[in-house]
Amino acid sequence: MIQKKICMVGAFATGKTSLIARFVHSVFSERYYTTVGVKIDKKTIEVQDKKLNFIIWDLYGEDEFQKVRTSYLRGSSGYVLVVDGTRYSTLEKAFNLQIRVEDAIGKVPFILVLNKWDMTNEWEIEDSEIDAVIQKGWSVIKTSAKNGLGVEEVFQSLAKKILDG
Q1: Torsion angle of alpha carbons 66, 70, 76, 78, nearest 10°?
Q2: Tell me, what's the pLDDT at 69?
Q3: Dihedrals φ, ψ of 100, to 5°?
Q4: 81 CB contacts (<8 Å, ≥6 apart)?
Q5: Residue 78 and residue 16: Cα distance in Å, rounded?
Q6: Is the pTM above the cut of 0.90?
Q7: What is the pLDDT of residues 17-60, one digit of tens each?
Q8: Which of 31, 39, 113, 125 measures 20 to 30 Å from 60, CA to CA?
Q9: The domain that contains 23 carries what CATH number?
Q10: Is 60 exceeded by the pLDDT of residue 65?
Q11: Of 56, 63, 57, which is closest to residue 84 (Cα–Cα)?
Q12: Nearest to 151 by CA among 28, 57, 49
């Protein structure tokens, strides 16, 4: 079995912990939990006839007071860059974080996740902005930790990128 470390990165309250709970345990909670430091989960998935054991590091959300520690990123085979579609500022934060992650660990596969797709009536990110990100060559997947939309696809896609890399 192939073991791979994956980091969840993004601004605070983008849904990183909820996405992991949906992916690993198939649950969603309306309660908001602040991640302190890092929380680690595991899940085995099968991709291209190979079993991958994902060790998923849920890093605390970055805000103006707290920067993500690059030491947490070391050894990552890939990462998920999480954006809250109802807060445009989290997309700008994701652009900055992507540069910092790449500076820390080099170019490794990642997926940009536009979370909270179940709340499109509150969406602040325009389709043109999503298209611009795709034009940069980034993989973008819309998700909802609440109803599960796209969550499995994120980790399957990241696994394929890692295996093909």
Answers
A1: 60
A2: 78
A3: -65, -40
A4: 9, 10, 94, 97, 98, 101, 110, 111, 112, 113
A5: 15
A6: yes
A7: 999 999 999 888 777 666 667 899 999 999 989 999 999 999 87
A8: 125
A9: 3.40.50.300
A10: no
A11: 63
A12: 28
